[in-house]
Amino acid sequence: xxxxxxxxxxxxxxxxxxxxxxxxxxxxxxxxxxxxxxxxxxxxxxxxxxxxxxxxxxxxxxxxxxxxxxxxxxxxxxxxxxxxxxxxxxxxxxxxxxxxxxxxxxxxxxxxxxxxxxxxxxxxxxxxxxxxxxxxxxxxxxxxxxxxxxxxxxxxxxxxxxxxxxxxxxxxxxxxxxxxxxxxxxxxxxxxxxxxxxxxxxxxxx
Length: 206
Known about the structure:
Elements: H1 3-16, E1 31-32, E2 38-42, H2 47-52, H3 59-70, E3 79-82, H4 96-113, E4 117-120, H5 123-129, H6 135-138, E5 143-145, E6 148-150, H7 156-161, H8 163-173, H9 176-181, H10 185-188
Parallel strand pairs: 2-3, 2-4, 4-6
Antiparallel strand pairs: 1-3, 5-6
Helix pairs in contact: 1-4
């Protein structure tokens, strides 16, 4: 099967999964080039995304589009999705348990697309790949995770609320072509973020 066929199969599987939360909202699976080099991952759809069933189409999406175009890229050249595939009520942050149940589907989506670089947008998406990272400290840096480069950036919605964050968002975005090309990445890769220690099941009882 092609990547596109596998993605459509996965989307249908999510649509049928009645155990998933937020089913009062529309499914926003993701869109873009399944053969992309760069995959952008946000936290969850908002109002406009829910209405159009497309990721990043509101004000934050417009900023993301502008940033992509500023690199000489096109939106259709990359792939864009979220961890949580349906809109939380009133655009609240996704709950940890909501993120947890959607995680396996995102994992499979990433495996199908197999991008060279993953760009998590915001702390929720970043912590999926880098549990110990902090967005204010680690955004704009490249981390190697399971053989892929992960470059967390501020969420576009956060950038729209702060001039300082917006400047950092744009500055960090400009690093992406060099990271994709493999040039300059060595300067951007900081110390590996330590994984959380695994606690034996019996230890959790005390």
